[in-house]
Design brief:
- This protein is mainly beta.
- Helices cover about 15% and strands about 45% of the residues.
- The model has no long low-confidence stretch (mean pLDDT about 95).
- The chain has one domain (about 5-70).
- The longest helix is centred in the C-terminal third of the chain and has 10 residues, at about 60-70.
- It is built from one helix and five strands; from the N terminus they run βββββα.
- A hairpin with a 7-residue loop joins strand 1 and strand 2.
Length: about 80
């Protein structure tokens, strides 16, 4: 069973509004052996990077709150 969740932003393409573009924003991964969730953000380089201000938490809700707050503008710009 998968242990990761990815969140994408979906929007119409600028040159073709009928085409929907999905842009990865957030990935959270559960590490069962340590019982923690890890948080990643998608860099402009096209690679996932651990979100250093809050790399992991025991409660998924804590990470979701951090993503919505986005104090370092990593997720929503």
């Amino acid at each position: 069973m998968g242990q990761a969740i990815e969140i994408y932003s979906a929007r119409p393409a600028y040159d073709d509004p009928g085409e929907i573009i999905e842009i990865p924003i957030v990935k959270v991964r559960y590490v069962r052996t340590r019982q923690v969730w890890q948080l990643f953000w998608f860099r402009a380089s096209g690679k996932w990077q651990g979100y250093e201000p809050m790399r992991e938490a025991g409660d998924l809700a804590e990470l979701v709150d951090e993503v919505w707050r986005d104090p370092y503008y990593c997720f929503w710009g």
